[in-house]
Specification:
The protein is of the alpha/beta class and 290 residues long. The chain has two domains: 2-116, Up-down Bundle (Glutathione S-transferase Yfyf (Class Pi), Chain A, domain 2); 128-286, Rossmann fold, CATH 3.40.50.11810. Helix content is 47%, strand content 9%. It has helices at residues 8-11, 16-29, 46-50, 52-63, 78-93, 95-105, 118-134, 170-177, 201-217, 228-236, 238-245, 256-263, 281-286; strands at residues 2-5, 32-35, 73-74, 115-116, 143-146, 181-182, 222-225, 253-255. The strands form two sheets. A four-stranded parallel beta sheet has the order 2-1-3-4. A four-stranded parallel beta sheet has the order 6-5-7-8, with helices on both faces. The longest helix has 17 residues, at 118-134. The protein is globular and about 55 Å long.
Length: 290
């Protein structure tokens, strides 16, 4: 099983731990990843807010370079994933847009390279039964709040790998397969305000505060995420949230790929767990996972 791999800008910079843990987890599962050569930024969020044609040209340029022998291209960043899938859908439906993209990119791309999120690959392609067979260290006693964010399953006509866009369960099912205890909470698809992080920080802090409050109320040990922007907002801003709201949050925000890696017996440092603002070291020791 071999996929092309598009890390995007975040996974080569502020979300290195997502890149590290995705590669490590996929190696542990025996899923091949080969990074797309000469990839470019997908344009989120600047391109699609300023130029519709550029918002399609940038994803199309990368997708046109994907090895046709690959099963598809794995795109971990939800913003990139969403932009790629939107471009695929638009190009398949609009011949005039295909012509414009061809003129800009210099090659024909018809929007037919499958774009998949690593969560989709693990749960629906690789399969949870196969994951269970690979588990060497169950995440017993770890209470996980699965946080999907507002883009992974929306809009459902574009991002449709989970059965219910409003109450998705794929990450919950994966956490259960890894031996963790899944927290039942209503904020799994609420927005964290990442797109307002710099323009309206007050709103981002309030939205992230509400998510952290709900997770804490349900006694979650950690929040599992699938998006580098969500991870950054919920992890990096906890100190600011504590100062503003008088709270004392100290909740590790981990990528679901890091949970997979831990269950496969991969060392926390190889998964980039030491790179988080809220260090999960004490939690891992408490749960005998490190």
């Amino acid at each position: 099983m071999k996929y092309a791999y598009y890390p995007g800008c975040s996974l080569h910079s502020t979300a290195k731990e997502f890149d590290m843990s995705t590669k490590a987890a996929f190696r542990g599962l025996g899923i091949g990843l080969e990074e797309v050569q000469d990839w470019v930024c997908c344009g989120a969020s600047s391109a699609h807010m300023t130029s519709e044609i550029l918002s399609h040209v940038l994803p199309a340029k990368t997708l046109a370079g994907v090895d046709r022998d690959a099963k598809g291209v794995v795109v971990p960043c939800i913003a990139c994933y969403s932009r790629f899938r939107i471009t695929n859908a638009a190009l398949q439906e609009d011949p005039e847009l295909r012509a414009q993209v061809k003129s800009a990119v210099g090659v024909t791309y018809e929007g037919k390279i499958p774009v998949v999120h690593p969560l989709d690959v693990v749960v629906n392609d690789y399969g949870l039964d196969a994951v269970r067979e690979k588990v060497s260290k169950e995440l017993t006693g770890l209470r996980v709040a699965s946080y999907y964010g507002c883009l992974l399953t929306r809009p459902p006509e574009i991002n449709s790998f989970d059965d219910d866009p409003e109450n998705p369960t794929s990450m919950d099912d994966l956490a259960t397969a890894l031996g963790a205890e899944v927290v039942d909470w209503p904020y799994k698809t609420e927005c964290c305000g990442a797109s307002l992080s710099f323009t309206r920080t007050d709103i981002a802090l309030r939205l992230s505060h509400d998510i952290l409050t709900m997770a804490a109320d349900e006694d979650a040990d950690c929040i599992a995420v699938a998006c580098p922007m969500c991870q950054s907002n919920l992890d990096l801003r906890q100190r600011a949230i504590n100062r503003k709201y008088g709270t004392s949050f100290d909740i590790p925000i981990v990528y679901f790929t890091q949970l997979i890696g831990l269950a496969l017996g991969i060392a926390p440092r190889e998964l980039g767990l030491h790179l988080h603002s809220v260090n999960p070291k004490n939690l891992l020791k408490k749960k005998a996972l490190a």
